[in-house]
Amino acid sequence: MKRPLIAHQTPDRTRTQLLETHSRNVGERCGAACQQIGMEHLGRLTGLLHDLGKAAHEVQDYLYGAPIVGKLNHSSAGMRWVWEAFGKNETRKSYRLAAQFAAIAIGCHHGTRCDIFDPENGSEPWLERMYSEKADPFYAQSCETFFTECIPQEEIEHEMALAAKEMASFWKQLSNNNSNSVSFRMMLGLVQRYLFGALVDADWTDTAHFEENTPLPSAEATDWPALANTVEHFLADLKQTRTIDFLRQEISDQCRSAGQNAAPGIYRLYVPTGGGKTYSGLRFCIHAAEHTHASRIFYFAPYRSIIGQNTRHFRKALGNSALVLEHHADAIQDETLQESILAQTQNWQGVPLVATTMVQFLNTLFAAPRRNARRMPSLANAVLLFDEIQSLPLQHTYLFNIALNLLSQAMGCTIVLCTATQPPLEQLAYPLLFSTPKDIVPDYAKRFEQFKRTEIVPILDHSGFSAESLADFALDKLQTNDSLLVILNTRRMVEAVFDHLKPLLGSDVQLFCLTTHLCPQHRMDVIDAIKAHLDPPHPAQKLICVSTQLIEAGVDLSFDCVIRGMAGLPSVAQAAGRCNRHGKTSCRPVYLLPCAQNEEHLDSLPDLDEGRRSTERLLSSLPAHTDLLSPASIQAYYDAYYSEGRQKNQMLAPTGQDGQTLLDLLSDNKSGVKAYRETHRSAPPLSPVMLFQAFDTAESQFHALESDTISVIVPYQEQGQKLVSLFLSTEHPSPELFREAQHYTVELNSSEFRRLDQAHAILPGAKGAVYLLQSNCYDSIKGIQTEPSAPEVLIF
What we know:
Number of helices: 32
Mean pLDDT: 91
Radius of gyration: 28 Å
Distance between the termini: 55 Å
Helix content: 40-55%
Largest sheet: 6 strands, parallel
Oligomer: single chain
Strand order of the largest sheet: 3-8-7-4-6-5
Low-confidence stretches: 789-796
Strand content: 5-15%
């Protein structure tokens, strides 16, 4: 009796999934995801062909339980067939590009996207994958069996004809809006990544539901009018008692009006610090989502401390915590486990609002692991709000601009850049293309005058404050203030000032420390404790908080006085936003002072150092008593900052290898083309409708943070200790456990991790899926300490 072609079999061999069933399921799901960008048939075609290689007898033997030696390649067959059938004819350009898009997605769906031309030696890795020696002996048989017993070839040809029409339309739309070759090429590469991500998600989802024997989920449209009504009622109930509250209400009303008339495009929410942008931004997004029939809303923030705080605000406003997914750390180290867990918890689907980090957004668009690309289709037709956009890493500026232009032009996204210190991204070499009009709050200059509550007081006649002298300066200012915030550029400087202050203070002063070495829950607890002390003010105790810049953006705290270590003017302005936040008193001082360079150690943080230098140069050139917090001063700062040669080079995203940049690798790939010429002594067979990027090289080198980080779950308080114990004792943690672990996870750089690991302070959990920290290396005040405080004791 002839065996049916299968795609999967359960380990106990009690259930099988037919290859045709899996292929059609994946085709429909991939097609539905690509329909959002006008490429439904290309998505369906790619899904139908992705497992063509499984029709080979040897692969079927393996799927039915026969032992094998080595690995069987089942991805190359579909890749090769679609390229040979439709890609080699250069006269049918739309067929050629559609075939290449599908071929790369199919051939790479179990790994990372191949380079088209290797930038080192000029080879063609995608063709090497396509014509794999392991797959070649079974290719003809795979095709014959698949088209005879699974999906008819005529059906595939029909889908390709429609896919080619989609590609021709998409090409025209993209080329009409983008004359720059680099931008255009990079956009094409991002669209291919979208297709790749849609295929990976469709494949993982269908496979997971077969293995779990559960039905495939059906998409449910969000009832935006009902949510908008809920938010409006919530905001209407907020008390307004101060003058500044009524000014915030005016801004909020402007956001509602703009949202009700929004169209896909890129906008600015330019309001001063303390302008109430959290709720105003949500109000715009909710009404824009209703007006544009959006798929969902995304809130992207630079720091996890902001996400924790604002997620609570969003849940209150929406009236249901289940409507918000908070995603800000991938603590899972094992990629196989990541696939199964993230398939259920962090694929950015199934909720109206996703709150996550800029790091996760950048990883979704540019980083190598396919779990990142898998999330990309969730961005289509969404409303995206980027909070504190001035914190965008400099080296990703051009990549970010081009990606947002694509999302707004071709993927139906409505995008908002939100901050009190808007960088002029539209003025750069690869500009952000704002909509007209671009400002949600058109009278923003007047708003800055209305919200003036602080004054920057530079202290320039000083060679640089040491940690000790800075602590003395803070104590002096505490004499005339009840609450004081000290913001410094590095964790090392923060902890040094904290350590100098601690023995000098009595019980009448509370002292807090905030750095990224505190896990998110710990940071939130500290912020809550500070907030409880400040509002209403504690009559018997004064307060000092020493923090890194994580407290600057979006943290709703108001101090009597702020001291800021010399930094980029946008950071200084954000620091000022933590002072006299609600305008309760007259204009308050924000002291801006230089720190001793031999103690601050900005050598390894060039972006921070350049920002500091740019502010110092600006201060020396501006007239005395200039309002440093005005939009004009901020613009002057950015004009100077972006004109520097180092900054211009950094925005190209250099890889550090012979002038190579990520921008080039993801667009024209001049390195790869040059290497091909040198190796083959002839020009490569390039075509204006061909991709020739070095995808794998670029994506493997992309890091959203300047240095690689490693996630470690920490034993903060009883719940953190319980989580560590559970991960030590459980081989198969639940998705819920991983979700909770986000709040107890700290990102360490490689040197910090290595130091702790060598001290035996790092433990593997869940069979190596996560890293856990020993309790003696987590301080209840300063978080992770890289030197253990006592002999190591295993936690159970």
